[in-house]
Write a structure and sequence with these properties.
By secondary structure, the protein is an alpha+beta fold. Helix content is 45%, strand content 20%. It has 11 helices and 11 strands.
């Protein structure tokens, strides 16, 4: 189970379609999950904060967000969503593939706008707050798509696509800037993306420091220093946190035994799993399942 699969436990407003890859769902932190671990994907993502406060980390920079804020995550950007102190946050996730906006036959929309954006030659602001210039125009496009998804009238796909083009017209016309190359930072991001994708695909198996260091072509000591300096935590602690997050989802969504779940997410020792789970969530796995599951 990868990041997007566990997110898909949340309520769907509009189900994805291979011919129309646009999906929206609602989430609540910490009600649905404590946080969304650092990950990346090929789709664009809009995070629209509805209530409360939380954090969004993008390419190693953390931002505190509040109700009304809108974050634009570009394909390939490393990002995570978390809780701010003890507060809760409700937010809407909108995920769509840029291919739905890119014409198969090359045109100026591709060459002058979308391709430069996706290749990093043009930059758009990450966050748009209610006090930001043009916020009303930006949020209106998203709100309009949310509204039409309540009824799905004939041709709603055309409407959604039209609002996305309008959104990017506003962003390019009023918000875009040229992006400096930043080659060293780009190399660091690409290396970290390989590490996080390796964890995402292999967390259920035994992973050693030697394994992951070899994956990115670093010595073990260099890898541990790089990961700590970049992520602010050790690799072992990150791996355990990732596994615990996946275990917390399985405790709610499946009927498997706690032993089976511990094994499925990569913990070989049940007592160790129980101990660090309680340290992370303040309750045992059994208590967590009982309290989180619907009555």
């Amino acid at each position: 189970m990868n990041i997007l699969e566990y997110e898909n436990y949340q309520e769907k407003i509009l189900h994805g379609d291979p011919l129309f890859p646009y999906i929206t769902y609602l989430c609540s932190i910490p009600l649905d999950f404590g946080y969304v671990p650092m990950h990346w994907h090929d789709e664009m993502e809009i995070i629209y904060i509805k209530k409360g406060n939380g954090t969004i980390t993008v390419d190693f920079t953390q931002h505190t967000v509040s109700a009304g804020d809108i974050a634009l995550i570009l394909p390939g950007q490393l990002h995570s969503i978390g809780q701010f102190e003890s507060e809760s946050m409700e937010y809407e996730n909108i995920i769509f593939h840029p291919n739905m906006l890119i014409s198969k036959k090359t045109d100026t929309c591709n060459t002058d706008y979308l391709v430069p954006l996706l290749s990093g030659n043009v930059s758009l602001p990450l966050l748009y707050t209610p006090d930001s210039p043009h916020y009303a125009e930006i949020s209106a496009c998203i709100d309009a798509n949310d509204e039409i998804c309540k009824t799905y009238p004939s041709g709603y796909q055309l409407f959604i696509k039209g609002q996305l083009f309008l959104l990017f017209y506003i962003l390019f016309h009023k918000c875009s800037t040229k992006e400096p190359s930043g080659k060293d930072r780009s190399k660091s991001l690409e290396k970290m993306k390989l590490i996080l994708k390796y964890v995402e695909n292999n967390y259920m198996e035994k992973i050693t420091i030697e394994d992951i260091a070899n994956e990115v072509g670093l010595s073990q000591s260099h890898f541990m220093k790089y990961f700590k300096n970049t992520m602010g935590t050790s690799f072992v602690d990150y791996l355990n946190e990732y596994r615990l997050t996946m275990a917390s989802r399985l405790l709610i969504s499946s009927d498997s035994s706690i032993l089976a779940i511990a094994s499925e997410v990569g913990f070989e020792n049940l007592s160790y799993f129980n101990r660090i789970f309680k340290k992370r969530f303040g309750q045992t796995p059994r208590e967590y399942r009982r309290r989180q599951s619907p009555a």
